[in-house]
Amino acid sequence: MTTTPTVTRQHTVIDSPYGALTLVATDGVLSGLYMTGQRHRPPEETFGAPDLRPFGEAARQLNAYFAGELTEFDLPLRLEGTPFQRGVWAELVRIPYGETRSYGELAGRLGKPGASRAVGLANGKNPIGIIVPCHRVIGASGSLTGYGGGLDRKQQLLAFERGAEGEAPVLF
Amino acid sequence: MTTTPTVTRQHTVIDSPYGALTLVATDGVLSGLYMTGQRHRPPEETFGAPDLRPFGEAARQLNAYFAGELTEFDLPLRLEGTPFQRGVWAELVRIPYGETRSYGELAGRLGKPGASRAVGLANGKNPIGIIVPCHRVIGASGSLTGYGGGLDRKQQLLAFERGAEGEAPVLF
DNA sequence: GGGCGGCTGGCGGAAATCCGACATCGACCT
DNA sequence: AGGTCGATGTCGGATTTCCGCCAGCCGCCC
């Protein structure tokens, strides 16, 4: 017979300036962070049993981030996807706090200059929002273009990271 | 949404000179007759609830057949299969009691002279044994070649139909 | 008679291929 | 600026193609 995977999965919900955040752990390691109403959010029944124990450190760092006291997460993550998706997500975490990159820029960095749309696709499938900062990717012309959690949240996140001293956010 | 078929299915088991026979009805019409240990016999759980009511006439004719008093069944049948299979099965019921045809002969009658092996395949999938007389098909050389219920049963059926006055059955 | 080899056609599952959907980009137009 | 158009890469599901199986047949050989 085929070997059954037998992964344990737990989840919890925390509050944030961007609404409730659902945290998911697979085998005790953070594997998902989803906003309410987010596109491509997996069905609820895949989140496992409620259990806040695995999420102590993650919640601490998120709260520090929302307070403006943390600019770089340091957490074990479990990112499961196709080789290309994993490449894109690995590139995302290298974008510094407060900065942005364009889809085409990331594609070029991956050695596939024409794959900008594919980067957008993989971006949308990012399972761990905020911590894997897909919100830092915008169009080459500077337009926000899209965000699984909604363009307004993307704009708020960027404005927040740009800092209170930043000029008014570029709206669309 | 897709329309659900919602077919009713019932079954019963009767005894015979060839062992227990499982009769299956779909929407009240005979759709299956399987021997014990027969190849391609569907799994038990598809036979529906036990209920002998739909099978009165079928059982009567079968008993008459086993007693040698009936040579032609007259029953509504529900034969479900591919167009080719239905063609083969339709050809089967036209083989008279006590006679035999070869696989190639049937193939030719269907307008596909080369399809003798395909006829054998369709023959093996015959859902209503005995009544749809797949046992009356033998190799061009006269050999029995195969039977879902076992070659011995095929040989017994042919010997029985040939009649007590017939000469000794050709063994293999 | 029996045993091979090569041809046959249909079937069903597996593999390969196709196609639509996209969080893009650049050139061109008005 | 905004809109349209074509080219681009990946993904997932659907579709198509392929391949092995088989209740055969014929010709050839021993």
TrEMBL record, chains A, B:
The keyword Chloroplast does not apply. Keywords: Cytoplasm, DNA damage, DNA repair, Methyltransferase, Transferase. Residues 83-162 form the Methylated-DNA-[protein]-cysteine S-methyltransferase DNA binding domain. CDD domains: ATase (cd06445). It catalyses: a 4-O-methyl-thymidine in DNA + L-cysteinyl-[protein] = a thymidine in DNA + S-methyl-L-cysteinyl-[protein]; a 6-O-methyl-2'-deoxyguanosine in DNA + L-cysteinyl-[protein] = S-methyl-L-cysteinyl-[protein] + a 2'-deoxyguanosine in DNA. GO terms for molecular function: methylated-DNA-[protein]-cysteine S-methyltransferase activity. Its EC number is 2.1.1.63. It is found in: Cytoplasm. Transmembrane segments: none annotated. The active site is at C134 (nucleophile). SUPFAM superfamilies: Methylated DNA-protein cysteine methyltransferase domain, Methylated DNA-protein cysteine methyltransferase, C-terminal domain. The keyword rRNA-binding does not apply. Residues 11-79 form the Methylguanine DNA methyltransferase ribonuclease-like domain. Its main location: cytoplasm. Coiled coil: none annotated. InterPro entries: MethylDNA_cys_MeTrfase_AS, MethylDNA_cys_MeTrfase_DNA-bd, MethylDNA_cys_MeTrfase_DNAb, MethylG_MeTrfase_N, MGMT, MGMT_N_sf, WH-like_DNA-bd_sf. Belongs to the MGMT family. This enzyme catalyzes only one turnover and therefore is not strictly catalytic. According to one definition, an enzyme is a biocatalyst that acts repeatedly and over many reaction cycles. Involved in the cellular defense against the biological effects of O6-methylguanine (O6-MeG) and O4-methylthymine (O4-MeT) in DNA. Repairs the methylated nucleobase in DNA by stoichiometrically transferring the methyl group to a cysteine residue in the enzyme. This is a suicide reaction: the enzyme is irreversibly inactivated. PANTHER family: METHYLATED-DNA--PROTEIN-CYSTEINE METHYLTRANSFERASE (PTHR10815:SF5). HAMAP family: OGT. This is Methylated-DNA--protein-cysteine methyltransferase.
